[in-house]
Design a protein that fits this description.
Blueprint: H1 9-22, H2 27-46, H3 57-74, H4 80-97
Helix pairs in contact: 1-2, 2-4, 3-4
Length: 98
């Protein structure tokens, strides 16, 4: 297990956003990704998932379905489902590289 895999999801958010800063992402993009990750971390916490090693593709797909159903329920077209999924997959891939 890598060092990153043992970290909590909350600990990984600033690590991921700092990596974005180093790569010169715009402040707006970083803030959007931070917000999307906070939503995902909350989703995970509600399911007693707190560590990066517990994040699976199945969990991310469940989260994407959750966002889709939420959008359908409130009638709000939003692209955040795909953005959030991509963001979560990116942070999940971070655990493999660290």
């Amino acid at each position: 297990m890598s060092a990153a895999a043992g970290r909590t999801l909350v600990e990984m958010v600033p690590i991921y956003t700092e990596a974005m800063e180093i790569r010169h992402y715009s402040p707006h993009t970083i803030e959007t990704q931070r917000m999307l990750l906070r939503w995902f971390v909350q989703f995970c916490a509600e399911r007693e998932i707190h560590h990066l090693h517990a994040v699976t593709r199945e969990l991310v797909e469940r989260y994407q379905r959750h966002l889709y159903l939420l959008r359908v329920k409130i009638g709000s077209p939003s692209r955040h489902g795909s953005s959030a999924g991509a963001c979560v997959l990116a942070i999940s891939n971070t655990r493999q590289r660290a």
